[in-house]
Each structure stands twice: as C-alpha cells, then as structure tokens.
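Quick one, T. Sequence first:
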Amino acid sequence: MRLGLLTNSLSQVGWDLDRIAAWASENGIKHLEVGPAVPLDIKLFWDIQSKYDVSICGLIYCRNFLSDDPEEAELHRKNLRERIKVAGQLGKDTVVITSTGRPQDVDVTTGLTKGLEPVVTFLEEMLELAEQHDVRIAIENCPVMGNIAVSPYMYELLFERIQDHRLGWAYDPSHLFFQFCDVYEPIAAFGDRIYHFHAKDTFVDEKLLAKTGTMAEQSWWRYTLPGKGQIQWDRILSELQKSGYSGIISIEHEDPYWSETPEKVTEGILEAKKHLEEFKNFTC
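Structure tokens:
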C-alpha cells in the first residue's frame, strides 16, 4: 500500500498544485489525488511529476450528473468525461474517483434504490469512455454530492447490474461509520472491487446522539483525522492487506479542528500520516 493525499484541504487554504506537490514530496507523501479546484491541465501534471518526487494517482470529481437542471447535468458530465481522458493520458493506472449521480426525486424518504436504473445507464455511458482510454472509475461512498452508492447494500446492487470491472469502489470508512454500517467486513467482501481508499475517521458524540437522534440535526458526528475518531485503523489496514489491496491510502483531511490556515491543515495531515504509519510500512 502507498500513502497519498487528496489535494482539497490545501487548495482550500490557497495553495496551488506546485506548492502542494513540493510540500508533499518534502514530507514523504508521493502520491497525489487531485481535486476539482486544481486546473485540469495535462501539461501541469507532467511538469509537477517531473519537478517533484510525486505522482498523480487519481482525479476526483463528485457531482450530481443526474440533476434536473440539464445545463448543470451536462456541465458535470463534460467535466467528468475530460477527467477520464486526462487520466488515460497520465497512465500508470490513474483512477477517476466520482459519485453516481442522483435524480432529484430520489432521497432517503423515497429510498435510494429508486435511483438505480438512471444511475446504471449513466455509468455504462462513462464506462464506454473509460474503456477507450484504459481507465478505471471508482465510486466514492459519500452520501452527498449526488450519490446513491452510500452503503455496502447499494454497492451490491450496483455491481450486480454492472459487472464491468472498470467500475469499482473508492472506499471511505468515515461515511459508513456515521451510518452505523460495518466498516471492516465489506473490505473482504468487496476486496477485488476496491480501487482507491480515503483515510478519514469519524467521531460520534454518543451523549448528544442520545438526545438529538439521527434526524433533528447532524452535530452528533463529525469527520476527524485518522486516529482522532472511533475507527480502528490497525484493523482497517489489516483487512486491506488481507484482501490484497496494494493501492493508495489517500489522506482526505476534513477535520474542522485542523483547518482554516495552511499551518493547521499541514499539521493535521502530518498527524494523520504519523498515525497511519504506526501500523503499516508504506511503499513509495
């Protein structure tokens, strides 16, 4: 397994890709998952990889591709298609990480399974393009940004309908944890379809949860750095190793306690790196 970093947290404090790559390389993080705030520029990516000891391992773009607004939907589809093409140019098994899209009339009150058919049609279209460019697409299990693939059950349904192994799972245990899903067992169950991994933890305030319940508001849980929440990272990494996963462990920093300034964000990333490296030796 190789340690990586999603660029979003540093883009949000004003760093461009050059500065992110320089800092990551200096601190032993050699794989970058590039977020949508970074210009999609193949020359920039090649220049960064030749200038610093880093590689671009993934391009992430999670949006609602099935929006009822046709202009919005087409804009997002266009941006995703462009990332598939650029990922093919980058090679080295660069993964495109995205969401499924979700019709506006599909939500938790209707049940997300209602959105399966239009999602399958959309993903099959993207997979045709992915095959042309020799790219794999990994769906992240984030419950927002226009997504129905939020739980192991939804991935079962999705992979039953789409057996093309260019489609896989960008596994993020933090999203599963606050839904009270098992975060460990699915790694073995879906091992050959996990193509990318986001290292992010979750803290659940059980006292507050007992008072508010799950629906009144969402302050009873928050994302944290790995090691600052309730996920057992020794177990997570052990399950990944047993499943044969040899891809990227990408630090996705969304902890509000280490945010707002470059100093806090970089300190948070290094805290996450230190915790993860306590359990496994990562290769370059």
